[in-house]
Amino acid sequence: DAGVIQSPRHEVTEMGQEVTLRCKPISGHDYLFWYRQTMMRGLELLIYFNNNVPIDDSGMPEDRFSAKMPNASFSTLKIQPSEPRDSAVYFCASSFRQGAGYTFGSGTRLTVV
Amino acid sequence: AQSVSQHNHHVILSEAASLELGCNYSYGGTVNLFWYVQYPGQHLQLLLKYFSGDPLVKGIKGFEAEFIKSKFSFNLRKPSVQWSDTAEYFCAVNARNYGGSQGNLIFGKGTKLSVKP
């Protein structure tokens, strides 16, 4: 298995632009998680899905953030409009069952200037 | 509020020194416990995990961790560190019976380990 695949690896965008991050979980994993990592706040859970359904989005910072999982093999995290404080590394992770460990993707380093 | 505490923000050791990184959590009920490692510029990788059974868990690269339920702790240890162990280490807990959402891990803030050659 290729693991959790995220794209792009790096994204530099101007403030106000829309940003879309993509994630392909491991086949057969029913849980998908989006995390944000910054120096100041560490790892923050943004949202997670079970069987493509959003279960907990309480970590999504603002209405500017949205996430979708249209099918079992694809998820997106969108920021519209982006702001400099959104600059962070965004990780996607997947898990095959509740309580199991996660497999993380390589992350997307987002820089908003 | 539920939390995972990693007491040391940054640990600096010389090669061959012994390592112990602290992790405490504040959940009741059934827990699964994890340690993840993040090498510079890379993603998090699972180092070891505890679900049940022997509270002393052995992971990859010579790491081990001990679950002490009475202390709500899951400290990470390694008898002799190497320069290549330089990384950030995250403790995580999955609390399945303590309110909130199920299925997600709660991560500590991480401990940076720097090993001097």
Give the arrangement of secondary structure elements.
The complex is a heterodimer of chains A (113) and B (117).
Chain A: E1 5-7, E2 10-13, E3 19-24, E4 31-38, E5 42-50, E6 53-56, E7 65-71, E8 74-79, E9 88-95, E10 103-104, E11 108-112
Parallel strand pairs in A: 2-11
Antiparallel strand pairs in A: 1-3, 3-8, 4-5, 4-9, 5-6, 7-8, 9-10, 9-11
Chain B: E1 4-5, E2 10-14, E3 19-21, E4 24-25, E5 31-38, E6 44-50, E7 56-58, E8 64-68, E9 73-78, E10 87-95, E11 106-107, E12 111-116
Parallel strand pairs in B: 2-12
Antiparallel strand pairs in B: 1-4, 3-9, 5-6, 5-10, 7-8, 8-9, 10-11, 10-12
Features:
heterodimer, A: 113 residues, mainly beta, seven-stranded mixed beta sheet, B: 117 residues, six-stranded mixed beta sheet, four-stranded antiparallel beta sheet
Task: Write up what this structure looks like.
In chain A, 0% of the residues lie in helices and 55% in strands. With 113 residues, chain A is mostly beta strands. In chain A, strand 7 and strand 8 form a beta hairpin. Chain A is globular. The termini of chain A are far apart. Chain B is an all-beta fold and 117 residues long. In chain B, strand 7 and strand 8 (64-68) form a beta hairpin. Chain B is globular and about 40 Å long. The chains are: A mainly beta (113), B mainly beta (117). Chains A and B meet through strand 5, strand 9 and strand 10 of A and strand 5, strand 6 and strand 11 of B.
Overall mean pLDDT of chain A stands at 93
Number of helices of chain A: 0
Mind summarizing the main beta sheet of chain B? 6 strands, mixed
Protein chain pair with the most extensive contact, residues per chain: A-B, 23 and 23 residues
- The end-to-end distance of chain A, rounded to whole angstroms, is 36 Å
Q: Which residue ranges of chain A are poorly predicted, with pLDDT under 50 across at least 5 consecutive positions? A: none
Helix content of chain A: under 10%
Say how many strands of chain B there are.
12
The largest β sheet of chain A comes out as: 7 strands, mixed
In total, the number of strands of chain A is 11
